[in-house]
Amino acid sequence: MIKTVIIEDEKPASRKLERMLSNFPEIEIVAKIESVEEGVAWFSENEHPQLIFSDIVLGDGLSFDIFEKAPTKGFIIYTTAFDQYTLKAFKLNSIDYLLKPILDEDLEGAVEKFKSFIPANDTHGSQDIKKMIRKEKSTLSRVLVKIGYNLKIIQTHEISCFFSENKIVYLQTEDRTYPSDFTLDELEDVLDEKKFFRVNRQFIISSDYIKNIHTSPYYKVDLEFQPEEEITVSRDRVKDFKDWLVS
């Protein structure tokens, strides 16, 4: 049996996932947790399960906080409505990342992936599984931003560029600029490389919003929506930039 824990603060979502997992006779749910506080206490006092299904945004924080305070050797399948946490999830013992509403076929695929990592006669260590996971490219399709006390979902196809300023990375849309929780290095790993390109240390731009490209005396890009800063292409990136434009 695969000892399994569900971390989910919405009771309907928790019950639905439990019903879906009942189709897998090899899975035994040993606990259902609803908060970071409860999770830290449970993982500090109990034997850790082999598999964890965890929402990310809980009522009292992010589920990442649980595993930072009570590190686990179990492996995590994240279930969430927001995909902006993909990179951080894979830095922990995550083996998959399912966006809500969860589809039966996606859940089955995640469980099968877990079982393929843990053969009956052998056991992979967490570092081995992390290496396997990093081989799988995840693409960011939407970003969660905070506006005062409110949260807003922005689709990446609405974003003309990401840029850094005073150690904060912002994203630009038609209506305004929003701060994000990413670094530009992280974004390079999760954005669709066919749509987004890092032209210099400060900017990642979208091909969908390029209005004009100046080539003299240096490469400069005008976007339909951009901050006041001039967007130039670093000399060492010009060839890659031209290749990207026609790829």
Structure, explained:
This is DNA-binding LytR/AlgR family response regulator. Keywords: DNA-binding. The structure is a single chain. Strand 6 (75-80), helix 4 and strand 7 (94-99) form a beta-alpha-beta unit. The longest helix has 14 residues, at 104-117. The termini are far apart. The chain contains 8 helices and 17 strands. The protein has 247 residues and is of the alpha/beta class.
Short description:
The chain has 247 residues and is an alpha/beta fold. 29% of the residues lie in helices and 31% in strands. It is built from 8 helices and 17 strands.
Order of helices and strands: EHEHEEEHEHEHHEEEEEHEEEEEH
Report strand %. Answer: 25-35%
Number of strands: 17
User: Approximately how much helix is present in the residues?
Assistant: 25-40%
Estimated structural class: alpha/beta
Give the overall pLDDT as a whole number. Answer: 87
- Strand order across the largest sheet: 2-1-3-6-7
Major sheet size, sense and barrel closure:
5 strands, parallel
Uncertain segments of ≥5 residues (pLDDT<50)?
A: 121-137
How many helices? The count is 8
Backbone shape: elongated
Q: Ends: how far apart?
A: 48 Å
- C-alpha Rg, in Å? 21 Å
Protein name: DNA-binding LytR/AlgR family response regulator
Organism: Chryseobacterium vietnamense
Keywords: DNA-binding
